[in-house]
Amino acid sequence: MKKILFFPLLDSLPSGHHQVANAVTEYMNKRSDVIVCKKIDVMSSWNSVIESLVTKTYLGWIQKNPKSYAWVYRKLAYKSKAERSYKHYELLFLKEMEKIIAEEKPDLIICTHAFPSYLVSKLKKSGACSIPLVNVYTDFFINDVWGRECVDYHFVPDISLKFHLIKKYGIGGKNILVTGIPIDESFYSTSLMKKADRELTILLSGGSAGLGKIREIIDNFNRVKGVQLYVLCGNNKQLYKEIFRRNEGNIHPLPYINSRRKMNELYDVADAIITKPGGVTISEAIKKKVPIFVHSALPGQEIINLKQLKEQGLVFTIEEGLDVAKQIKNVLRNEAKMEENQQSLERFSNAQDFREPEEIFHFINSVLDPSYVKVQQTM
């Protein structure tokens, strides 16, 4: 038996870091019964009460004082320093990480969050850990917290980040794989066919917490003819109840959807999605080739994501103060814009080294067992 230890962060927040860890776990479990995958949050392991407090503080901060959060994030985690030290993190969590690894005895460590990657990298540099380490990046940029020294492989979202790691940090190209942000395997299949002669179906998402300018957008779609709006409320129960009470015929609130199969069905009938620029949701929509409209971006990570996505022509942005429904209809009816967008989505996908979960499985298996590659080549 081989064991893979996944390190996302903040157990009480169903973030993209956890979704990506779950997706790769699924790739492995579906294809092998001799690989054990386990997910651990180093902060919860250290102190679950503190972890819960950090989650609540983070959510409150980005909603109540987004500008200060964005400033702190850029100052402490995204300032383009080649080598940054986080001694306070090490004092609090390095021993806990070392203890977890010693107890779990994994054959491979996969980090889907920068913080545990930094800690494991430090342990490897000091000689306290010799286990292969893989960074799986869950945004469309790489912040300064991620470990780089002693990281064996990097799974990056797009080709530009591969060049970034090579040029800025001197990381060997063979150690960097363009995988996209790994998403649930359900999104690789088509469940339903769109009908050509029907109303527009548009998804509106605020992420797992139901954040962003959801209410303002809903007001723009109130009783708009020819459009059915499905609002993904996430865990925001107050938002769900509010929309439900409005009882508007063309606006349909949906609670947090845990089933990836159900989400895949929604993508298959959608003509567009209005969303924040979170890594996983954007990656799902890109895979499904659904036109993406960004309604707002949370401070910090999502603002930087949006800049990268716009530069690659992968998303459309919604202008404030103008009718949202009209803007989206105009874009969807513009054949030139739609053709250009679809070409951008194709370029993004075609630049990936691995385009199927099967390929990621084989690569990880080869890291777990170097002889596996030889076996595959002789078959």
From TrEMBL:
Keywords, ordered alphabetically: Glycosyltransferase, Transferase
Domain of life, per lineage: Bacteria
Gene Ontology annotations for the cellular component aspect, listed alphabetically: membrane
Predominant cellular place of this UniProt entry's protein: membrane
Domain Diacylglycerol glucosyltransferase N-terminal per the UniProt entry, residue ranges: 17-183
Gene Ontology MF terms: hexosyltransferase activity
Domain Glycosyl transferase family 28 C-terminal intervals: 201-344
Compartments where found: Membrane
Keyword Glycosyltransferase (UniProt): yes
Record Gene3D superfamilies: Glycogen Phosphorylase B
One GO biological process term: glycolipid biosynthetic process
InterPro entries cross-referenced by the UniProt entry: Diacylglyc_glucosyltr_N, Glyco_trans_28_C, Glycosyltransf_28_UgtP
Pfam families assigned to the protein according to its UniProt record, in alphabetical order: Glyco_tran_28_C (PF04101), MGDG_synth (PF06925)
Coiled coil (residue ranges): none
Metal-binding listed as a keyword: no
UniProt similarity note: Belongs to the glycosyltransferase 28 family.
Name of this protein: Galactosyldiacylglycerol synthase
